[in-house]
């Protein structure tokens, strides 16, 4: 398939899967594998996340403005900002330390990615049904110790196929956070996490990105932005009513199909 068309499809896939617990990176890497998509330094898969970042910033612009404008005189706002930053720190440190092995080994192992989709799907189904009774129903009420715990759990998502949003949502629910609040905290945490990953990966790969690679990234970025806006506006209402079982089954089906395709020589 032409790389331009593949970049557009992968960008759409990034936006559709970034904020739901199915692993956007896992889906993009597997789709790229079967499409024969060429990505120098695997930079495309990380850098198009900027589209999803801008989507969440756009949808939450009013909420963010209210949060930061009230922070100087509102202790609750300051505490919530601190909670997000504390949750971000483990991924920032470990991500830099493990960057090379993540990009050169884990990103290049389709069997591992598909297996993580299946395993993660099973975990989501179990937690969705048997999570502790929620004690926290608002993202802003997540405590600092909870935030630190969620931050360390988020580091599991450095294994492609685990899912950043899936790890943070499951971790939060196991700590007694409600389904909607867990998703919303995952939204807020995605902003510094994805922005940091984008900046670091761009710095690491700036010398190998030629005009074609940058063009593909631009196409993927635009497609990711528009599809992510749709998902962000839809997701909270859906999980409030139906939970996360759909995403667990999706992961299991996709992971199983990919494993079978790989076994057949795909």
UniProtKB/TrEMBL annotation:
<keyword id="KW-0046">Antibiotic resistance</keyword>
<feature type="transmembrane region" description="Helical">
    <location>
        <begin position="182"/>
        <end position="202"/>
    </location>
</feature>
<feature type="transmembrane region" description="Helical">
    <location>
        <begin position="80"/>
        <end position="99"/>
    </location>
</feature>
<feature type="transmembrane region" description="Helical">
    <location>
        <begin position="47"/>
        <end position="68"/>
    </location>
</feature>
<dbReference type="GO" id="GO:0050380">
    <property type="term" value="F:undecaprenyl-diphosphatase activity"/>
</dbReference>
<dbReference type="GO" id="GO:0046677">
    <property type="term" value="P:response to antibiotic"/>
</dbReference>
<dbReference type="GO" id="GO:0008360">
    <property type="term" value="P:regulation of cell shape"/>
</dbReference>
<dbReference type="Pfam" id="PF02673">
    <property type="entry name" value="BacA"/>
</dbReference>
<keyword id="KW-0472">Membrane</keyword>
<keyword id="KW-0378">Hydrolase</keyword>
<keyword id="KW-0961">Cell wall biogenesis/degradation</keyword>
<keyword id="KW-0573">Peptidoglycan synthesis</keyword>
<protein>
    <recommendedName>
        <fullName>Undecaprenyl-diphosphatase</fullName>
        <ecNumber>3.6.1.27</ecNumber>
    </recommendedName>
</protein>
<dbReference type="GO" id="GO:0009252">
    <property type="term" value="P:peptidoglycan biosynthetic process"/>
</dbReference>
<comment type="function">
    <text>Catalyzes the dephosphorylation of undecaprenyl diphosphate (UPP). Confers resistance to bacitracin.</text>
</comment>
<feature type="transmembrane region" description="Helical">
    <location>
        <begin position="248"/>
        <end position="265"/>
    </location>
</feature>
<dbReference type="GO" id="GO:0071555">
    <property type="term" value="P:cell wall organization"/>
</dbReference>
<keyword id="KW-1003">Cell membrane</keyword>
<feature type="transmembrane region" description="Helical">
    <location>
        <begin position="214"/>
        <end position="236"/>
    </location>
</feature>
<keyword id="KW-0133">Cell shape</keyword>
<keyword id="KW-0812">Transmembrane</keyword>
<dbReference type="GO" id="GO:0005886">
    <property type="term" value="C:plasma membrane"/>
</dbReference>
<feature type="transmembrane region" description="Helical">
    <location>
        <begin position="105"/>
        <end position="127"/>
    </location>
</feature>
<dbReference type="InterPro" id="IPR003824">
    <property type="entry name" value="UppP"/>
</dbReference>
<comment type="similarity">
    <text>Belongs to the UppP family.</text>
</comment>
<keyword id="KW-1133">Transmembrane helix</keyword>
<feature type="transmembrane region" description="Helical">
    <location>
        <begin position="139"/>
        <end position="162"/>
    </location>
</feature>
């Amino acid at each position: 398939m032409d790389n331009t068309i593949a970049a557009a499809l992968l960008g759409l896939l990034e936006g559709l899967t970034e904020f739901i617990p199915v692993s956007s990176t896992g889906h993009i890497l597997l789709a790229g594998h079967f499409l024969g998509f060429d990505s120098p330094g695997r930079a495309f898969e990380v850098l198009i996340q900027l589209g999803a970042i801008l989507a969440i910033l756009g949808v939450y612009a009013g909420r963010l403005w209210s949060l930061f404008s009230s922070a100087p005189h509102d202790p609750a706002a300051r505490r919530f900002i601190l909670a997000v930053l504390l949750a971000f720190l483990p991924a920032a440190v470990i991500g830099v330390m493990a960057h090379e092995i993540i990009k050169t080994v884990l990103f290049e192992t389709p069997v591992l990615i598909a297996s993580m989709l299946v395993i993660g799907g099973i975990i989501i189904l179990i937690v969705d049904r048997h999570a502790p009774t929620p004690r926290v129903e608002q993202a802003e009420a997540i405590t600092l110790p909870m935030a630190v715990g969620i931050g360390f759990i988020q580091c599991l998502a450095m294994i492609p196929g685990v899912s950043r949003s899936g790890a943070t949502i499951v971790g939060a629910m196991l700590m007694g956070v409600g389904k909607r609040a867990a998703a919303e905290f995952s939204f807020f945490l995605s902003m510094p996490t994805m922005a940091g990953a984008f900046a670091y990966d761009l710095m690491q790969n700036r010398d190998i990105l030629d005009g074609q690679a940058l063009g593909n990234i631009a196409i993927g970025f635009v497609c990711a932005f528009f599809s992510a806006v749709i998902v962000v506006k839809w997701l909270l209402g859906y999980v409030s009513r139906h939970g996360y079982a759909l995403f667990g089954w999706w992961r299991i089906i996709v992971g199983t199909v990919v494993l079978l395709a790989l076994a057949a020589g795909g």
